[in-house]
Amino acid sequence: MILRYSASADNTIVNAFRPNLTRRATGSNTGLADVLETYSIYGRQAVSTSVGPASQELSRILVQFPITSINSDRTAGTLPASGSVNFYLRLFNAPHSKTVPKDYKLVVYPISQSWQEGEGLDLESYRDETKGNPGSNWVSASDSAAWTRAGGDYLTSNSSLIYEQTFQGGTEDLEIKITPLVESWIAGTTDNYGVGVFLSSSYEAYFSGSAGADSGSVLNNLNGAQKSYFTKRFFARGTQYFFKKPIIEARWNSSRKDQRNEFYFSSSIAPGADNLNTIYLYNYVRGRLTNLPGVGTGELLVSLYSGSADNTEPSGSKLTLYNSKNHATGGYVATGIYSCSIGIVSSSTSPLYDVWHKNGTEYFTGSIIPIALRSSETEPHKDYIITLTNLQNTYRSNQLERFNLFVRPRNWNPTIYTKAVATVSTTTIQSASYRVIRSIDNLEVIPYGTGTDNHTVLSCDENGNYYDFRMSLLEPGYEYKFKFSFYNDRMNTWQEQQEEFKFRVDK
Predict the structure, then answer these.
(1) I need a labelling partner for 378 at 20 to 30 A (CA). Which of 6, 332, 334, 344 fits?
(2) Going from the N-terminus, what domains does the chain have, and what CATH number goes with each?
(3) Taking CA 405 as the corner, what is the angle to CA 286 and CA 403, rounded to the nearest 5 degrees?
(4) Maximum CA pair distance of the chain?
């Protein structure tokens, strides 16, 4: 699952010279500009020997995000608890006609003082000065407070809250996992004043002061670079491009893998973990998921039984499980949803019945058709036909939609008898992922998330694969398309499927 939080304020602050190279633009503000900029210029202007042999010109980015919105989503249960979600700072490269530096490093520091965005626009001549008006600049955080140090005040005491990214080509987007920082903002252990983004000290320009300290607007940096890095630009929150605004992106694996339809007997040919199957209980009361009375968010037990003579209900005693016990312990997943990992050695009994119980109360009974594991060879390349069974033409931007994916082998060829008495059932894909593309320009707005976070991985249950998607992630007024990729264990690779499924999002 993905949630995105757009920046609530941003600005570029500079100590650069104005075009006449005689006066610095330390009082300028660009809070309403549609781009953000960071750079370092070394030696463009000779200066007095009392403050150093060559000039230093710097530009830094300030960005703040609405942590109250993130906290509200967590309180409401929309966002998982700490430890179950990662947060990423994302800034998107803004192409321009000026030079672009290569092989440099940007750092991200928490800002340690409140600041104002301001209303300036001019990133070329820096003519928009605050002059007592609201807004931050190189020397002032607001119209009533100066920075302690020119260039902004940053939290430097906690290295776990400081981040960096290397830019080799220069035009890359910035994407850094800042989970500890966001969690500290949510917890209130760190004040949320946003982050500063700028060149690391070894890439900001060298400058020596006569007293070994800052000299007015110029920062003492004896370990800095004696070359320029000009200029890196990102889109600001005022940009017209919906998918290019600065964001904090929350990512987590919300998938649930209910293996009731692919329940395998335990086997000596499989490692221990593969001898367990995860099954789920969904407790619907009048159409709503509801916690089990007497269980709540706690544990409950699952036992397996063989069937009766006509295989319609559990019979006999509890079967001995893979763990040599007659039950396995399950637990709470979410409101009204419980899961349990369970295994049993091969038996001729089919089906099996899973009984969920606690303290003598039986809450639910399900049925399972187990499958025997075999060591036979399988087809390395699997070809499927897929469809989204409940796809609509148009969605509203405030919808949270669940999509159901139907899958069957492309070469499925039933006999006449089978075709006459039965319809093909869906094939469950254990590792499947989606991405989203804007149709008009083929812009990938949500890529496959199959790495650490698995935030675009599909769930599965007894009815096949499914996933939930928030239409608020997409800009209204455009057509989009879903694409899918399945992981092939035999080939150790993801294979994108041919089909694409188009839909439109409106306000």
Answers:
(1) 344
(2) 2-250 (no CATH), 260-368 (2.60.40), 384-506 (2.60.40.10)
(3) 50
(4) 100
Could you give the CA distance from residue 19 to residue 474 in angstroms, rounded to a whole number? 41
Chain-centre distance of CA 247, in angstroms? 11
| Angle between helix 67-76 and helix 179-187 axes, rounded to 10 deg | 80
Token pair of 23 as six digits: 């006066």
Cα–Cα distance, 243 to 445 (Å, whole number): 7
Go through 302-317 and write b for each residue having 16 or more CB atoms within 10 A of its CB, e for each that does not: bbbbbbeeeeeebeee
Tokens representing residue 449 in the block: 């998330």
Instruction: Say whether 458 sits in a helix, a strand or coil.
Output: coil
Q: What is the phi/psi pair of residue 177, to 5°?
A: -75, 120
Which is nearest to 219 in space by CA: 230, 232, 209? 209
User: Over the stretch 323-375, which tens digit does the pLDDT of each residue have?
Assistant: 889 999 999 999 999 999 999 987 656 789 999 999 999 999 999 999 887 76
From 458, 470, 381, select the one nearest 426 (Cα to Cα).
458
Task: Supply the DSSP symbol for 144.
Answer: S
The helices-and-strands tally (H runs, E runs) of the chain is 3, 30
Residue 351 preceded by cis peptide, ω within 30 = yes
pTM to 2 decimal places = 0.93
Specify the DSSP element, H or E, that contains 183. Answer: helix 179-187
Name the token pair of 439: 């149709």
- What is d(CA 218, CA 207) in angstroms, rounded to the nearest whole number? 8
Structure tokens at 164: 């960096």
End-to-end CA distance of the chain: 22
Give the whole-angstrom CA distance, residue 271 versus residue 275.
7
The tens digit of pLDDT for each residue in 51-68 reads 446 899 999 999 999 999
- Calpha distance 441→4 (Å, rounded): 22
Three-state SS letters, 65-103: CCHHHHHHHHHHCCCCCCCCCEEEEEECECCCCCCCCCC
Counting as low any pLDDT under 50, the low residues of the chain are: 49-52, 377
Query: Distance between CA 32 and CA 133 in Å, rounded?
Result: 14
